[in-house]
Amino acid sequence: MTDPNVAPPAPQGQPYSAAPVGPRTNTLAIIALVAAFVFPLAGIICGHIAQGQIKRTGEAGQGLALWGTILGYVFTAIGLIAIIAYFAFFAILFASVPMTINY
User: Is the pTM of this model over 0.85?
Assistant: First the structure.
């Protein structure tokens, strides 16, 4: 019979170890993805630089860098289209209104 006041023996075996760690994520790739939403040109530049670093060092983050670059280009194109549409709208508006001066 076992005494209820005595603790059971400690389990035998190997102690727990930390989970295996993969390659470190490139910081510039993370910055490229975030910057693509705020400053698209910075996302393009950081994305290209990060892709070069990832190829050289073998770090993780290739997808982040790629999407930062792609989104940077897309948002830059949308911004340029918006600026062109803005000026075209006012050019058409002022061209359709007669400019007469009455004294």
Answer: no
